[in-house]
């Protein structure tokens, strides 16, 4: 006769072992992020990358996102990880990108939360990581996704003179931000798949934004231009927004140095883009603070409320350093980049006892129009949220560090 007490006792033992196993597994998974050791003698680029991975084991978790999404800011961080991966050959960085790619692009090549008909130029930026992912994995989901993004550019609405609108919901508007969001992907795609046929159109984007947003007095570029001159923020004579925002100028400068990676050396528009880079670099250098940093509102200095902002400073450092490294800019800009990066690490980087690093004083976001309405005033820019470890400040930090580590 079977004793039920013995069976129950045995079952409880087995159940106990199973519960212990699953508890240990959960604890182990939870401690994975704590296994990352960030040595203080590592280069700044790796210290930041490892700090990001320690806080956010999955790339989509950056910025405290609660679920995966296709996002220009995450694309910016993935671009920096790709550069770091190619420098170090450490698969940890490559796998971080790959896991994100597999999460936001399904096996059929469909992009998570992407709608072509939104005609949002921001949605192009994360596509830059797809070239390398396709090359590394031979997975055609990435090729399909690239083709989808290129298709958007074919029908993306434009100004009457040929410039891409920033978004469908912002008709007739070009923003400096949009140059970085669209043109480096466009340049890489036309080089790899279209025989370089679109470089004139790519140069056209820079020509239009330069023509319509440049301020002849300072040499700086206003954040945006409304061709229709109908937006309340737009100057009724020129269509420009009223202020200079450092990060927007940084987007423009990063777009220039990155597009030049793909434009053939004998292309007739190449010299023009290098000239644009030199002109904006001269203007931006005038506003570098003695600390090495730049202010949120570029030309307003220490006016009450203005502050030394991380992401714009990092973008300027990256563009100066890369421009000098590539020979587009005079060597003195490398020195200005070094000064800027020292300012970032001394004044804006916070280091935890365990070596984890954080970037402070990052403007969370800024734009024009929309709901609630953003008027582009000085008060608007200085009152936008300031965050720690916002993605806008993470990717450019790594990119700037890598250029200065060359």
UniProtKB/TrEMBL annotation:
It holds the Pfam family Glyco_hydro_88. GO terms for molecular function: hydrolase activity. The chain crosses the membrane at residues 7-28. InterPro entries: 6-hairpin_glycosidase_sf (IPR008928), 6hp_glycosidase-like_sf (IPR012341), Glyco_hydro_88 (IPR010905), PolySaccharide_Degr_Enz (IPR052043). GO terms for biological process: carbohydrate metabolic process. Keywords: Hydrolase, Membrane, Transmembrane, Transmembrane helix. This is Unsaturated rhamnogalacturonyl hydrolase. The lineage of its organism: Bacteria, Pseudomonadati, Bacteroidota, Flavobacteriia, Flavobacteriales.
């Amino acid at each position: 006769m079977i004793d039920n007490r013995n069976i129950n006792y045995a079952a409880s033992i087995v159940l106990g072992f199973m519960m212990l196993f699953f508890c240990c597994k959960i604890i182990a998974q939870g401690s994975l992020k704590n296994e990352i050791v960030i040595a203080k003698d590592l280069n700044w680029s790796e210290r930041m990358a490892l700090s990001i991975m320690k806080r956010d084991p999955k790339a989509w978790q950056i910025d405290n996102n609660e679920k995966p999404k296709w996002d220009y800011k995450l694309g910016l961080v993935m671009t920096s990880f790709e550069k770091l991966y190619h420098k170090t050959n450490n698969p940890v960085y490559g796998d971080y990108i790959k896991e994100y790619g597999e999460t936001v692009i399904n096996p059929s090549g469909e992009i998570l939360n992407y709608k072509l008909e939104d005609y949002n130029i921001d949605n192009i930026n994360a596509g830059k990581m797809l070239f390398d992912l396709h090359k590394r994995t031979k997975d055609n989901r990435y090729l399909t996704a690239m083709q989808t993004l290129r298709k958007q550019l074919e029908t993306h609405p434009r100004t009457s003179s040929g410039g891409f609108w920033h978004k469908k919901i912002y008709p007739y508007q070009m923003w400096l931000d949009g140059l970085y969001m669209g043109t480096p992907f466009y340049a890489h795609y036309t080089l790899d798949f279209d025989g370089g046929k679109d470089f004139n159109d790519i140069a056209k984007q820079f020509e239009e934004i330069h023509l319509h947003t440049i301020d002849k007095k300072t040499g700086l570029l206003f954040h945006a231009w409304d061709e229709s001159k109908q937006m309340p923020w737009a100057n009724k004579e020129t269509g420009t927004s009223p202020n200079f925002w450092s990060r927007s100028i940084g987007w423009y400068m990063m777009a220039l140095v990155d597009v030049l990676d793909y434009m053939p050396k004998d292309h007739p528009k190449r010299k023009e883009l290098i000239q644009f880079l030199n002109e904006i670099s001269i203007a931006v250098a005038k506003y570098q603070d003695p600390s090495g940093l730049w202010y949120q509102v570029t030309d307003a200095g220490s006016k009450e409320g203005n502050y030394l902002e991380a992401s714009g400073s990092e973008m300027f450092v990256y563009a100066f350093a890369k421009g000098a490294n590539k020979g587009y800019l005079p060597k003195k800009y490398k020195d200005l980049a070094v000064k800027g990066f020292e300012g970032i690490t001394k004044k804006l980087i916070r280091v935890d006892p365990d070596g984890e690093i954080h970037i402070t004083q990052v403007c969370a976001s800024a734009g024009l129009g929309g709901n609630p309405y953003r008027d582009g005033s000085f008060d608007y820019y200085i009152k936008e949220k300031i965050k720690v470890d916002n993605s806008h400040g993470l990717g450019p930090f790594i990119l700037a560090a890598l250029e200065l580590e060359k």
